[in-house]
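Why does this matter for the project? Reviewers at the last site visit asked to see concrete outputs rather than summary tables. In response, this paragraph embeds two records directly. Each consists of the residue sequence and, immediately after it, the corresponding structure tokens. Nothing has been edited or filtered.
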Amino acid sequence: MYEANYSEVSEFVFLGLSTYRPMQHFLLIFSTLFYVVIVLGNLLVVFTVTFDSHLHSPMYFLLANLSFIDLCLSTLTVPKMISDLYSGLNTISFQGCVIQIFALHVLGGSEMVLLIAMALDRYLAICKPLRYLTIMSPQMCIWLLVGAWIIGLIHSVAQLAFVAHLHFCGPNEIDSFYCDLPSFIKLACFHTNRLEFMITANSGFISTGTFFLLIISYIFILITVWKRSSSGLSKALSTLSAHITVVILFFGPCIIVYMFPFPTVPLDKFLAILDFLITPILNPAIYTLRNKDMKMAMRRLSNEVLSLRRIS
């Protein structure tokens, strides 16, 4: 279908992060180690929340799904980058590039909605504690998750609808290590300035709007707690600091890209590394190292595993 609609271009070539071979060796080791930590850290969060009954609450349900999405985002790009650094074959098929763009936007859109759901959860837990369990029922959590994936899917389809009519017949080099939509559009056969502006405005509006909505909601929560009891402000701030940090880590690179729609290539690559290698590590670290319940659950899980090994 894509070959019929688009063009003669059958594959794209990634220019990668560096052409300097010693730097490539360093990047190979760096990305491999970080990806292993990403997989282990996020799977640990998912398994701990799944198998520890003490964590079967809305907040940890949403946290486990956030870790799952972060793991998927990294898996879409980092293993391919590692393979390219090792083999030197920096190519991807046309269909593979389109699928990667589609999946990245589905996951990115879903994570945005999931972060909003987590902000709603904290608002209800802190400001409406008596109604919290009634509103954030298991059914509501499922609906929030389903809604996040549906909105992510709609967002991705809408983005790709902008480029459905493009033809690719010339250059096929992408100066990155993955297929991102702006770089993909620039390789089209005709001028795409208006299209680039529309996509940038669309994604920029969604990202910036969501970010400020989340920050305003956290400020509203803190003001509400402060009015009720100034002593509870520090506890609320401690609880929300992890959420605020994750929001800044996720939306920061997006906002920089859309505030400056034509960033320099080094900045673009740095932001991509931040998105796919750094943030997915920091998310589980922030939520586990600062959370007593998660620490206790991990100890219980490790003790159960050790006891099973001794019995076997």
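We now turn to the second protein, recorded in exactly the same manner.
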Amino acid sequence: MERTVVVSGGGTGIGLAVARHFAGQGEQVAIIGRRAGVLETAAEAIGREHPAAPPVLPLPCDLTQPDRVEALCREIGERFPTVDVLVHAAGGNAILQAPEGSYGDGLAGIARRWTDNFRGNVLSAVLLTEGLRDRLRAPGGRVVLISSIAAYRGSGAGCYGAAKAALHPYGYDLAAALGPKGVTVNIVAPGYIRDTEFFADRLPAERQAALIAETSTRRAGVPADIADAVAWLASPGASHVTAQVVQINGGAERGH
């Protein structure tokens, strides 16, 4: 049975890898992001790679704006009877993404850094999930939130790691609420993943080497590592796995 898979942040990096994986399985994929051009390019590329799959649907939207998310969810509801898999890969460290000097000094700058990271990583996931909550296939629906190793060890400035960590209790509460309906909710926490916009060319070679040295596998992660894990969590074989955080970092952070 062909499933409908909705991926936020599906135009680049981890989200794009997730979208590619599901399209390769013949699923109907919709990708969401703020940049229409990036989404269209991604959808076209996936279409060339998997010509037999249903065309990927690009849906531009700022997921931090409630009114826009409401309109987006209505559109998704008009196009598809249910959403089978919902993957939240949108987000990132607002400090790294902003032009240099964007954040001023003092408490005003601190407030903006924390607010931007909360909106981009938490609110974007919560609004889309709540907007589609009643459209999730029950039983059989799957929700996967993308967190980060920073949720366990911090991110230097605090605000990014704290924002990602906030996804964990939200996921636990959502899993408890949706579990009786046969819907699972899990969190994936990647470590250092190369070939993404998150890191891009920002990391000097010495820092990359240090991050790889922390792993037991002695390599950087790649977006496909995360996509494979998400695909398993979305599979029938993971129907009894819910309210879990799956770390994918080559052993850089253990336990929990």
